[in-house]
Amino acid sequence: RLETDCNAMEMANNMGFEEDSDYRDFEGTDVKDMRLEAEAVVNDVLFAVSNMFVSKTLPCAEDVAYINVETRERNRYCLELTEAGLRVVAYAFDQTDDSLQTPYHETVYSLLDSLSPAYRELFGNALLQRLEALKKDS
């Protein structure tokens, strides 16, 4: 994997691509590093699962990252994160099963909601607590 210290737009500008070139489609788009996205996903919902972390065994790239999650019910999953969303790729940490055809979910909340009743309850309670706090503040 090639690592750089500049983003795609800086690189295009530094290489002298013209405004009307084939590279104009990249303008205004952010090239995402899926490892950073995966870390953000983990930080968002860690409170509502038993364990969750970005895989250090499976390869992360700009277009894919893998997240291991253990629900409060003690079920383990390996999740694939891509631009298409998140999906279960194995029922164990740090593995992928190509024969598994699971649907993509747009958000980690949707995916965990379908996998874990305990997550659903914890997330709902956290949401209620935040709403009550907002109500007190106003």
Describe the structure.
- By secondary structure, the protein is of the alpha+beta class.
- It has one domain (34-137).
- 35% of the residues lie in helices and 17% in strands.
- The chain contains four helices and four strands, in the order H-H-E-E-E-E-H-H.
- Strands 1-2-3-4 form a four-stranded antiparallel sheet, covered by helices on one side.
- A hairpin with a 2-residue loop joins strand 3 (76-82) and strand 4 (85-90).
- The protein starts with 7 loop residues before the first helix and ends with a helix.
- One of its GO terms (cellular component) is cytoplasm.
- Pfam families: GSKIP_dom.
- Residues 34-134 form the GSKIP domain.
- This is GSK3-beta interaction protein.
- InterPro entries: GSKIP, GSKIP_dom, GSKIP_dom_sf.
* Individual helix count: 4
Portion of residues in beta strands equals 15-25%
> How many strands, which pairing sense, and closed or not: the largest β-sheet?
4 strands, antiparallel
Task: Note the gap between the termini.
Answer: 49 Å
Number of domains: 1
Strand and helix order: HHEEEEHH
Q: So what's the overall shape?
A: globular
Low-confidence stretches: 1-31
Structural class: alpha+beta
Radius of gyration: 19 Å
The total strand number stands at 4
* Average pLDDT metric: 82
The helix content is 25-40%
Q: Largest beta sheet: what is the strand line-up?
A: 1-2-3-4
